[in-house]
Design goal:
alpha/beta, about 325 residues, Rossmann fold, binds phosphoric acid mono(formamide)ester, 11 strands, 2 domains
């Protein structure tokens, strides 16, 4: 693996999953890989899990970390090329990224979309600018359109909960349903795009996306998934219910009001196959999902967040092992 920006960077998902499960079983067993190495983490946007799990992952590997909240901890960065920098920006991204990548062996970057110009966001202008300037491999800590470390952690979680062993077929495919859920703010499509992109490629999973009309994701990410619009019907007999809000892709960044309540409730979970509730977190309680679900045995959100460590550790391991 040369970088980790989407599932397209993974040659063999099953092999990567096998490595992750082995690393989780022996988390301090690969410290030679990280010895004298540094993982740099740049956040242009807030984070709890990605930031802390990446630090923990690097620590487990024996590597050092530094973290920069760009623009807050550092000089105010100028992103546009050709600008006369006589305003508030003190340093250009061109020098900043070249300098920061000189200070690490792997560079993790978080850049959210602006949700204004779909072309700009979906061309990953900001993320690609950082990637182009970095002298070391880049890891997405969530870009405008994708969150692959989250999706990989979700895959590890579902594999663990089903007892899936890489290379060995399950007796029956696992039914995974990603459902749109309400939210008071307009959110990016990065998590659902990424989840769809990964799970459409997992052959031991039967994958459905259920959403209100107008919330269809970019078809480049959903090819192979079953697309549904009736949440009650889709959740029946589900083994995993993956809830997430996202704003409209078609009417870019818009929120389309819904008459029906799409919140995941205890009653809805009772129609599943004793299904497990998943969410990437942070989650709005009693908006996206009811307390009764999050506080019940249905919920595996903490297992999922815990696996963010092993997702990141596996990716850092793969990128550092031959350096
Ligand atoms: N799931 C996730 O990426 O969480 P943070 O935004 O807190 O990093």
């Amino acid at each position: 693996m040369k970088q980790f920006t989407s599932v397209a960077d993974v040659q063999n998902i099953d092999e990567l999953l096998k490595t992750a499960l082995a690393i989780k079983a022996d988390p301090f067993g690969q410290q030679e890989v990280g010895k004298n190495k540094t993982v740099g983490l740049i956040f242009f946007n807030p984070s709890l899990r990605t930031r802390l799990s990446s630090i923990k992952a690097a620590y487990n590997l024996g590597a050092n970390t530094w973290v920069l909240n760009a623009g807050a901890d550092s000089w105010t960065l100028e992103m546009a090329d050709g600008t006369v920098m006589d305003g508030d920006s003190q340093e250009h991204i061109t020098e900043a990224i070249q300098v920061m990548s000189a200070y690490c062996d792997v560079l993790g970057v978080r850049t959210f979309p602006k949700l204004v110009d779909r072309e700009e966001d979906y061309q990953e202008v900001m993320f690609n600018k950082v990637k182009g300037l970095s002298s070391v491999p880049v890891v997405s800590l969530e870009s405008a359109t994708l969150h692959p470390l989250q999706s990989f952690a979700d895959l590890i979680t579902i594999a663990e909960k089903t007892g899936y062993e890489p290379g060995k077929a399950l007796a029956k495919k696992v039914k995974v349903v990603m459902t749109w859920a309400p939210h008071p703010r307009r959110l990016p499509q990065a998590v659902p795009n990424s989840f769809a992109e990964w799970f459409s490629k997992v052959d031991w999973v039967d994958f459905t996306i259920v959403q209100p009309k107008g919330y269809e994701l970019d078809p480049r990410f959903t090819e192979g998934a079953t697309i549904a619009y009736d949440q009650d019907e889709a959740l029946k007999e589900a083994d995993f219910v993956y809830a997430k809000n996202w704003s409209s892709f078609e009417n870019y960044g818009e929120v389309i009001p819904q008459e029906k309540d799409w919140q995941v409730t205890y009653e809805k979970m009772e129609t599943t196959n004793d299904g497990k509730f998943m969410h990437c977190l942070p989650v709005r309680r009693n908006v996206v999902v009811a307390d009764e679900v999050l506080d019940s045995d249905y919920s595996i959100v903490i297992d999922e967040a815990t696996n963010r460590i092993y997702s990141a550790q596996t990716v850092f391991h793969e990128l550092l092992k031959n350096k």
